[in-house]
## 1
Amino acid sequence: MSELLFNVKNLCKSFHLHGRVIPVLKGLNLAAEARQTHVIIGRSGTGKSTLLGLLAGLDRPTSGTIELEGAALETRSNEALAMLRRQKIGIIFQSFNLLPSWTAVENVEAVVMHSKTSPAERRKKAVALLEELGLGDRLHNLPVELSVGQQQRVAVARTLVNEPRIILADEPTGDVDPELGLEIIQRLVAPVRATGATLIIATHGSFPLEYADHVWELKDGVLASAKVRSGFL
Ligand SMILES: Nc1ncnc2c1ncn2[C@@H]1O[C@H](COP(=O)(O)OP(=O)(O)OP(=O)(O)O)[C@@H](O)[C@H]1O
Ligand SMILES: [Mg+2]
């Protein structure tokens, strides 16, 4: 049975910069079903990261509504939104947001620190994920000692370790080679297929269509179902 996870209506977002208004999202609609992989494509600067930030409740719309499981996001307090993220939403930021003085494995563990998982279990889970993503020999390196693609994989592991019901991934394969990119996509899609999580992934690069349930194109401030050909987008 299909069930709407996000129902976004007439979403507008403008930024104010040096006295100028920059309209980015201009009446965007999105009905994203739960337990699916949604891919948002679009040229650089079209507003993909802006949209993901709004879906995560990290930023507020200029106007329009975002419902998550039937309840409006925009009326909730910042504290309620932070709680929602802790409980349900895993975000992979385009800029990774790793803690610079913490090692790879500590960065991954950090997210589960406040859960009931024991320190030993936490370490085991973090190590297993990093090994799975090919970073078994980089566990104790600081972000500055890692390549950009390796940092990206730490960010992916950090999100997956919490097993979130909703994964928002902003260019999660932007800095790795195609082979590793495919491994990351397969790892992100796995919870959708295995446990019914929902994945929303933004990319200005290519994406293997066999892993996408829906492809949306962000253009001129609105989303449209993308014309899908076979193979890679
Ligand atoms: N805080 C901000 N202040 C002013 N302008 C902003 C801000 N954040 C984003 N923008 C502008 O909004 C537009 C959309 O940016 P956004 O980062 O969402 O694009 P994107 O589609 O994610 O691009 P990319 O593919 O390069 O990651 C850009 O023109 C950007 O300059
Ligand atoms: Mg972006």
## 2
Amino acid sequence: MKIALITGANKGIGFETAKQLAQLGYFVYVGSRDKTRGLEAISKLKDTGISNVELIEIDVTDINSIKQAKQELETKIEVLDVLVNNAAIGGGSDQGFSTGKMENLRNVFETNFFGAVQTTQQFIPLLQKSKGPVIVNVSSELGSLTVHSSTLNPNYAIYDTYSSSKTALNAFTVMLANELRDANFKINSVSPGYTATDLNQHRGTQTVEQGAKFIVKYATLGIDGPTGGFFREEEIPW
Ligand SMILES: NC(=O)c1ccc[n+]([C@@H]2O[C@H](COP(=O)([O-])OP(=O)(O)OC[C@H]3O[C@@H](n4cnc5c(N)ncnc54)[C@H](OP(=O)(O)O)[C@@H]3O)[C@@H](O)[C@H]2O)c1
């Protein structure tokens, strides 16, 4: 049975990704920074008949929490096959580079970029033991500089703080994929698309089932799959 870890999986797209991967037969560690919310998620999954899931407490902004999660996993598993860096925050309404508060910019990068980097660094040794290690960095079309370079694009110049954190995450994807190409890692950025969750006060036009489907596709890549790309239904321009 392949084993996956998803950060921020107690709700939204991460929760649905956990559900879909578990339904495909993966054992899924459901990451949650809050124990109570995590246990609620596990009990919701179990109510649907899914038993191959377990809570792992992990706050991606806290290196001690990540190390503790890693130590806990090391007592239970010898190999990790899939890491989904899903946890993220939106950054609220303070989004401009010309006017935004540095504190907000730092907080958003702390979760959406540094959080993914430091989580990945801690789990690489367990992933390296897999025959086909896979990392999905959950990104967004808003992280595409092509999108923000065309005044005609409907997403042009919106959510600058959040968007730039996803641009940085995309750079991480490309560079880490290059570093680990010879070790057979498949590392991609995947956008779920505009999905109704707490992140956008449920204004997204897709369901979580539709959004998670793209993440699951790249989380279950085989050894012939792409690495260092940016995808949703199709490849997304950087
Ligand atoms: N929804 C969309 O339209 C959309 C579009 C493109 C990309 N995305 C991306 O999809 C991913 C999932 O977003 P979503 O829409 O499902 O949002 P969501 O419903 O707000 O879920 C975000 C998850 O991240 C967790 N999280 C936040 N900070 C964390 C931290 N420091 N450590 C660990 N977990 C943390 C949250 O935990 P708590 O419950 O404890 O807050 C929650 O479980 C994100 O990467 C987002 O950027 C979403």
